[in-house]
Specification:
By secondary structure, the protein is mainly β.
Length: 122
């Protein structure tokens, strides 16, 4: 079992920045990839970014060049630095872990955090 706790969400003006953090507890030795997804009401959960245990990262098209994912394997943490935020980035952001190397589909993730709200608005 892996327990994930997210932090760092909040309200920000368009063009601003936020940093999300996620800490994993429990059987962290089973973790392969760590990722961030986001979801708005009425829509499917969308991949934001994922990083393998070796540091290889993939990003969703809508955040490339603006968001950066990073990971500390020793601490079992993953961060998401979000810059140049837009109103369309408003969503609940979820941290997730997978035994797979670099899964892009939400269905391949085993454990999920409780979610943290990010609101981008003027």
């Amino acid at each position: 079992q892996v327990h994930l706790v997210e932090s760092g969400g909040g309200f920000v003006l368009p063009g601003g920045s936020l940093k999300l953090s996620c800490a994993a507890e429990g059987r962290t030795s089973t973790i392969g990839a760590m990722g961030w997804f986001r979801q708005v009401p009425g829509k499917e959960r969308e991949l934001v970014a994922v990083i393998s245990d070796s540091g290889f990262a993939e990003y969703g098209d809508s955040v490339k060049g603006r968001f950066t994912i990073s990971r500390d394997n020793a601490k079992s943490t993953v961060n998401l630095q979000m810059n140049s935020l837009k109103p369309e980035d408003t969503a609940v952001y979820y941290c997730a872990t997978s035994v797979f190397t670099i899964p892009l589909s939400a269905g391949r993730y085993d454990y999920w955090g409780q979610g943290t709200q990010v609101t981008v608005s003027s």
